[in-house]
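Deviation from plan, reported transparently: pyridoxal-5'-phosphate complex.
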Amino acid sequence: MTDIFAKDKQFVANTYARFSINIVSGKGSVAVDNNGKEYIDMGSGIGVTSFGFCDDEWVKAVTKQLGTLQHTSNLYYTNPCADLAEALCNKTGFKKVFFSNSGAESNECAIKVARKYAALKKGSDYYTIITLNNSFHGRTLTTLAATGQDVFHKDFTPLTEGFVHTPANDFAALEKLATSTKTAAIMIECVQGEGGVNALDFDFVKQTAELCKKNDIILIVDEVQTGNGRTGKMYAYEHFGIMPDIVTTAKGLGGGLPIGATLLNVKVENVLGFSDHGSTFGGNPIASAGALSIVNRIDNKLLDAVNEKSKYIFSELKNAKGVKSVSGMGLMIGIETEKPAKEIVNKCIENGVLCLTAKTKVRLLPALNIPFDTLKKAVEIIKNACEC
Ligand SMILES: *Cc1c(COP(=O)(O)O)cnc(C)c1O
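Because the crystal trials were delayed, the predicted structure below was used instead.
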């Protein structure tokens, strides 16, 4: 079969509403389809290709490891895994890292750690995890239970027990729930991504962190999408002046290879012991070598550039015709448009720009190192699409 669209529809499970584009190659922030048409990529494969397609430094790190050692299992020590864990801890102050292969898995690990901590400290009935309405934490049955959006739950019940949801930015409601329920953990995204690119209120996050500290509740911050420089800090919690007990991340960490990480702070670094958790591929040498090259490049200079580009996008789009509002942080941006988001995205595709959506918004997650002139071209095309 030569028609790739037909072949994919016939043989790949129908879980994705794909756009009719067959991307065959890419370099930096430009993707190329099978007809040779070029697109400026404003989505980074949903916040994954942090330094764009086939970035030279990343390719070098990955291929060097590929020709050295691709996998050993976690029965043995390997350099890339230990080096990456050290780099993450040095950059953040966290104490230990558990590696997995995806965002959902990084959250599964965080949930296990929180439950075991609470079970040992307070009793096994302290298992409830509180998350926020409109959150997104993954697609496994447990992380679906954590996800505070009913649309994802339909047809898949019963989900894992012990998850309750409360409105974002309503601290009184959260406090009441946390103190009237036998709570193990509170899990938040500092900027809700899939929920519509909405940053939580500063005070709400601050108060939540204080509540957790006071009541010995584990604070988990899901940085699967917001992490690794995306919001203009290494991790988004830094904007709020808090220190979580556990941070989870994935997407942009690997630069395009699957990796998840659960960062454990001093309170929980030794909660998991031998055989409590594991992953065949977790900390895989190739994924770890790629991720290390990414983490090592997220420095103040890069973050300053991210913030500068963010300011540019906000100022260009805020008062643009057809734009109702712009939300988000750093290079994680949501645009509420007068026309349906899907229409804007299609118009952008026609004109050579790839954008994402989140709920009713157009969502932008460009590569952190997108060149300014490329970004300017994309923003012009997006503005045009919103206008006409
Ligand atoms: C994408 C995402 C996940 C799920 O990550 P997967 O790698 O698809 O399992 C979890 N939490 C947040 C905040 C995400 O954006």
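DSSP finds 13 helices and 17 strands in the chain. We consider this an acceptable substitute for the interim report.
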